Amino acid sequence: MKKSNRSVLLGAAFLMATSAIGPGFLTQTTTFTQTLAASFGFVILISIIIDIGAQMNIWRIIAVSEKRAQDIANDVLPGLGYVLAVLIVMGGLAFNIGNIGGAGLGTNVLFGVSPEAGALFSGLVAVGIFLVKEAGRLMDRFTQILGFLMIGLTIYVMFQSQPPIGEAVTRTFMPETIDPLAIVTLVGGTVGGYITFAGGHRLLDAGLKGKENLGEVTKSSISAIGIASIMRIFLFLATFGIVAQGLQIDPGNPPASVFQLAAGNVGYKMFGVVMWAAAVTSVVGAAYTSVSFIKTLSPVLQKYEKALIVSFIVISTTVFVLIGNPVAILIFVGALNGLILPLSLGIMLIAAHKTKIIGDYKHPIWMTVFGALIVVVMAYMGGYTLINEMPKLFS
Fold first, then answer.
1. Rg of the Cα trace of the chain?
2. For the chain, which residues score pLDDT lower than 50?
3. Dihedral over Cα of 153, 159, 165, 168: its sign
4. How many domains does the chain have?
5. Most buried residue, 115, 179, 189, 393, by most Cβ within 10 Å?
6. Which CATH number does the domain housing residue 279 bear?
7. What pLDDT is attached to residue 301?
8. What pTM does this model have?
9. What's the domain range around 160?
10. pLDDT confidence of residue 392
11. What DSSP element (H or E) covers 200?
């Protein structure tokens, strides 16, 4: 394989993974570990299986059709691509407000500046990436470096918290409790909304597509889930170590509390680095992928792609600085992301069996069955969550 291809494949994997690893990812993981303890390992295991099934199907179909998801959806049913694009962009914008807020919190922990000032700085960093000539290559390198940094610091904190590994492994396969809401939340946060398309669309833009590249595309999609899952597992173990010691985690900022309890003030500063890295890479991924959903809908939009990405980041930053972080809206959109997955994956599975979209390519039957099962399970659990949990947020 060419070195340039290897770099693009790794970049796509890290773009997807770091898009998933945002402020919500850190908070969800620590919060659910508090409530489920070692049994949260089972939730992670099930979510990884679902994530891999969704990613493999979607990335392969994008690669073999050589089209973006919205164009595939319009080929399945005229107008459906516009619906999908609107849902993705709305979700991406709402989440980006939260991502910018997380970046502001990270700089606040590191330097003591206000979250608003930190958010402005972080927004400028993200905008700067897309203003350079080789924006795609810089984005790949930026997400890789910060991705490795986040994982490395979390591993250090895990060792400091000394979790009971044996109990965690046992409960991963024999849980004491099973929480469907936790599964929906984790899947929605890892492959929901725009996130599942981040890597696939990046490979298209880099020219890695077609049947001849399917093997590498599949490996890249699994690598993406692997990177996000490694971060999830180490953060779970770090938190479980604190829970097992009977220490009290601050509900106001669970992940910061875990880092501080495990490694003192040094750990707290490490949290600042991890939070900023997680947030700013998610800002980059959300902006890039959301705009990739609308740029092919009009030649004018295609021409001004960079300007659209920059505008997306500027709007997110401005809303956070002026209004703050709309928590209830973010949680609501998070649940909606869980419902976007069965819709988008369902569209892709239909497209996988239409010759006008994928030509003479034969999509493996086991992948179709695996994907269809995920569509049914996520539609049911996502609907259940919306009906039962969302009214509590707005009551």
1. 20
2. none
3. negative
4. 1
5. 189
6. 1.20.1740.10
7. 83
8. 0.88
9. 3-394
10. 61
11. helix 195-205
